[in-house]
Amino acid sequence: MSTAAEAQVRRFVFGDASATKDAVPVAAGRAYADGFGFEGGNPALFSVAVPPGNYRVTVTLGLPKVRTDTSIKAESRRLMLDTVVVPAGRSITQSFVVNVRNAALTPPPLNAPGGTAVLLKPRERGSFSWDDRLTLEMLGARHGVTTITIEPVSVPTIFLLGDSTVTDQPAEPAASWGQMLPALFRPDIAVANHAESGETMKSFMTELRFAKVLESAKPGDWALIQFGHNDQKVQWPQTYAAAETTYRDYLRAWIAEFRRRGVEPVLVTSPERRMWAGDKIRPTLADYAAAVKAVGAELRVPVIDLNAASIRFYEALGPTRAPLAFNDGGKDATHHDNYGAWMLARAVAAGIATAKLPLAKHLKLDLTAFDAGYPPDPATFRLAPSVAHDSTRPDGN
């Protein structure tokens, strides 16, 4: 007799792979229906209906007669596997953990303030980040996915709270470091990216995004907090937070809320914009980076200085080549492309390791040493592009 946990395990078989009696064969091009299938018939996007939670996904990769090259993203382009090559006639299994959520909140008690759902923006409605299913994007010149197993799992969660430089950007060519981060961790922890374009610390609360994170978090989880790009905008009077005063107070309050719940907060300074003064970056977020460091020191909260790492990164590339790390062919001086997002994610992971945070034990063991001042040549960088493409600039630009 199967246990309740076993009953929740879902197995799917693709192509000519042999199926066990508990696996569901998936016909090529099967459109999503009855809880599984390809989104819109798109053979790259496979979805399975699941309730909110963390899921370990195990894939078998490899085909009998051809070499395969597989990258997998989850939900809204959250990188899980990067370019896994399997020779012809061989197969391997790989696992990763995907966090699935919806916008619903537990209704507040009668007459209590609050709400029943996160106040999503128009671009978020119907997105893979907030729906009722787990979506995988299978990419590569010849991807080799033959089986997929999905099972609920109880693991720690890293919650990401931030703005457009952190969020899961839903379409090429924009990308953010938060959506690259899962590929740097082992399959014993989940990354739940709640960041969204255009957000400030104030709006993150008024839109009930903070409430959603607090409701979802549990003791032993982590919260990486990065704001500043939009908080500094005096022209947004409803959400402006001065670096010397209000912004610091919000950080203190958030830290207290997480600590009260047994969640470990980590502060991240915002990556700089690509503004030059000669061959040096002209800082636009220095006051906010200083505020983050001051609050971190005051409350003994770890700080990852992504602001300093980003400056080292851009200056190492120089004014001519630094645009290769940015969205819209470099016309966008705030948001990154896949290369820039990947480098900043590596910098965040390096910050976790250098600080010797307990979180570092979850990082992949084969990560090479990383120094933002010595980035790899952008011409050598390869990441399988997603299906979705949108030239619209992210909110908050």
Rg is 21 Å
How many domains, as an integer?
A: 2
Query: Could you give the order of the helices and strands?
Result: HEEEEEEEEEEEHEHHEHEEEHEHH
Give the overall shape: globular
Number of helices: 8
- Tell me the distance between the termini: 56 Å
Spatial arrangement of strands, main beta sheet: 2-1-10-5-8
Main beta-sheet strand count, sense and barrel state: 5 strands, mixed
CATH architecture of the largest domain: 3-Layer(aba) Sandwich
> For the residues shown, what is the average pLDDT?
95
Helix content: 10-25%
In CATH's first tier, which class of the largest domain applies? Alpha Beta
Q: Hey, roughly how much beta strand do the residues contain?
A: 15-25%
CATH superfamily annotation of the largest domain: SGNH hydrolase
CATH topology grouping of the largest domain: Rossmann fold
Work out the number of β strands: 17
Helix/strand structural class:
alpha/beta
Low-confidence stretches: 1-6
Task: Provide a quick synopsis of the model.
The chain is α/β, with parallel strands linked by helices. It is 21% helix and 24% strand. The protein folds into 2 domains: 1-154, Jelly Rolls (Sandwich), CATH 2.60.120.430; 155-397, SGNH hydrolase (Rossmann fold, 3-Layer(aba) Sandwich), CATH 3.40.50.1110.
